[in-house]
Amino acid sequence: MQAGNSTGKQRAGGRAKSFTETGRRAQIVAAAIDVIAEVGYQRASFMKIAQRAGLSSTGMISYHFDGRDDLMREVVAEAMRVADVYMRPRIEAHERYAARLRASIEGNLDLLAEYPNHLAALAEVLGNLRGGDPGMVAFTQGMEAILAFQVEQLRKGQQAGEFCDFDPWVMMRAIRAAIDDVVRRARDEPDVDVRAAGRELADLFDRATSATSTTSR
Amino acid sequence: MQAGNSTGKQRAGGRAKSFTETGRRAQIVAAAIDVIAEVGYQRASFMKIAQRAGLSSTGMISYHFDGRDDLMREVVAEAMRVADVYMRPRIEAHERYAARLRASIEGNLDLLAEYPNHLAALAEVLGNLRGGDPGMVAFTQGMEAILAFQVEQLRKGQQAGEFCDFDPWVMMRAIRAAIDDVVRRARDEPDVDVRAAGRELADLFDRATSATSTTSR
Amino acid sequence: MQAGNSTGKQRAGGRAKSFTETGRRAQIVAAAIDVIAEVGYQRASFMKIAQRAGLSSTGMISYHFDGRDDLMREVVAEAMRVADVYMRPRIEAHERYAARLRASIEGNLDLLAEYPNHLAALAEVLGNLRGGDPGMVAFTQGMEAILAFQVEQLRKGQQAGEFCDFDPWVMMRAIRAAIDDVVRRARDEPDVDVRAAGRELADLFDRATSATSTTSR
Amino acid sequence: MQAGNSTGKQRAGGRAKSFTETGRRAQIVAAAIDVIAEVGYQRASFMKIAQRAGLSSTGMISYHFDGRDDLMREVVAEAMRVADVYMRPRIEAHERYAARLRASIEGNLDLLAEYPNHLAALAEVLGNLRGGDPGMVAFTQGMEAILAFQVEQLRKGQQAGEFCDFDPWVMMRAIRAAIDDVVRRARDEPDVDVRAAGRELADLFDRATSATSTTSR
DNA sequence: GATGAATGAGTGTTCATTCAT
DNA sequence: GATGAATGAACACTCATTCAT
């Protein structure tokens, strides 16, 4: 999952939470991220998550979260928060859109090297969402908004003459899919050099978006 | 899932099957493909598949298949068979590697337009395999072999001077990931013009692989 | 199961059977004996028996037998028939009751050495009968009759002064239980010398029944 | 099943258990003992056990026990514990091996009179173990160890001149088989006087093992 | 007679969730 | 707040039996 440029998160339920409840929730979310990264979205049962979190029963999770979907929403929110903190400064350090795109791609895979479980969990949860899932609809829309922002960046790059002519939605999804694929590969083969893969992908999409190759003909 | 160049498959058990049993198996596999495409690999229970196939009980599926893994193997084999029949002549109609790559990408998405459930089920099953799954190991290896063949094609294209310098494994996985992403998108948003997306992706990876930009420098 | 001195068998159902049907039945019974000896009474499913018999479906068994109990009755009857043919002349070759008892014990274990599956299946089926099983009640009573005959032999030996004073029912059941135990042991450890065990058991029960030890004091 | 001289047991899983969980486990084990004694090992389904224990679903049993084997292990452990408590002082009250053997036989059947289901369940579970059952292997070995101890007692009795010459393994298995047979008979015919049977069996094996017959010659 | 596909009840097990304590 | 026992539905799978052909 390509991360960065998040629009920020907010809890689904609006009621105020005490400090310890917030702490418990964070603890459970952290355990969920590890478990999801390890065994996948579907096999990440409450029991496994509770064990990883050092809890003695799954009831604790149901107590703190309004169902499995709520927990998963928090997992995604936490992963996105981490990604946002990591990515935003690296992207905004650049002016030109092409440089920002490269920073985005390489940054995602540097992030993967540092937080492999976060990105793996993120990809797992989002990859297992269905369009029809009620309760996750608003969620999916939030994801679309983030993607739309990134697409808009591509479009601006085109208008600025940095990028050639292409469908920015198709390009953006291809970039995200390629990054997610490395995330999945890193999960199964921990020895993969994800930073090197990041540079390769950045080169790849640089060529794919660059205006120079067309103008030079 | 990018398909094509399948190595073919046959049932593990050697016992001869009657025509009607073969028919029932095919019917169940077809139902499984539809259900998997609709609700995903994990949620595709025998009960849903049996209902879709017009069977009164899940026992019938266990009667015809040697467990869930066996059914899933047949699902993949069937999807690969369809893909192979569709893709192979389209790819082999071209001489040059660049043209073959374009044919492969566009062909996959034309195939998606005609058999959306087949490709969706294929991606679902393969995407949910874990390294540790015993009984599916040989299966994963078979997929790797196909991917390796496609990587080899890219490498030959580089040697022939048609492609620029890039890591063929990274490129191949990026291509496959981009195609699979369209498959997933088409599943959730049936109105997507997948053939147009195919042309866009073909253009994208044509630029990303083309040797022209280097010669013009 | 101690065998011998059978009162003979008769089919439960009274209708006449054709020659081929009788052949099929015998074939199935033979397969059932092997399967039961190998995997036990409860795990001996129609499917395993059909496979062993070279039949392509379990329906064949249900066609020829009026349910599982009917098949099991035939299994016992066949095993008892074999045992009776083998045991009767060996026992009747002796005049004295003590010699007949020894012939009975050693004969049973010689029989075990020659037909291990028959005796194992016999013990399995009889050992898994419950008192309450309807449809098997008449059957159990038949077994009791055989045992009663053997008890009567012991009693006659006592009256003849060959045996000391003991409860013949308890003695008979102990003998049978000891023999059955060797049958079970031979099933799990095929290297056991069952004939040697037979001689040991014959000695054991010779001492336990002998009138000499008491008179000699 | 002849019991006594148990080596003791404790749960495989090391997790500490609350009092109520321990209570529930004991309740389920007690229900399992009753059901197994009534319908046998194989027919003792979780559903029947749950109903007997007053539970609404079989899931509760899976919650408290790590599978069917785990429950069966506890059943045997409980039966052996009861047997050990009952038998040990009765056996150790005697010095001589012959007296100990008599105490062992009569004690087992007195125990049967008091805990008929415990011994019936014990015999059922152990009698249905196959050599190939993984997870129960260590279990079978434990039973062999107990039997070996009892065999050793017989051997010592022979060396002490109390017993005549016989194969102690064959003798021990015959004794155990005779006791188990009474257990089974008591299960099907509750009116049997098991204590009387115990005295008869003790007399029987006293004669079978006694050294007096040899000295008088 | 013989076949084998179909049936439906039953198996142990996992799961997210609930609720009395 | 926190616990963990209890719940009931769902899961894949096996089984003996039935029945149209």
From TrEMBL, chains A, B, C, D:
Q: Which UniProt keywords apply?
A: DNA-binding, Transcription, Transcription regulation
InterPro entries under this entry? Homeodomain-like_sf, HTH-type_TetR-like_transc_reg, HTH_TetR, Tet_transcr_reg_TetR-rel_C_sf
Gene3D superfamilies xref list: Homeodomain-like, Tetracycline Repressor, domain 2
Q: Does the keyword DNA-binding apply?
A: yes
The protein's matches in SUPFAM superfamilies, at most eight in alphabetical order, are given as: Homeodomain-like, Tetracyclin repressor-like, C-terminal domain
| A Pfam family annotated for this UniProt entry | TetR_N
Q: Which residues form the HTH tetR-type domain?
A: 28-75
Q: Tell me yes or no: is Transcription regulation among this UniProt entry's keywords.
A: yes
Specify the domain of life of the species encoding this protein.
Answer: Bacteria
What is the name of this protein?
A: TetR/AcrR family transcriptional regulator
What species was this sequence derived from? Streptomyces graminearus
Question: Lineage of the native species?
Answer: Bacteria, Bacillati, Actinomycetota, Actinomycetes, Kitasatosporales
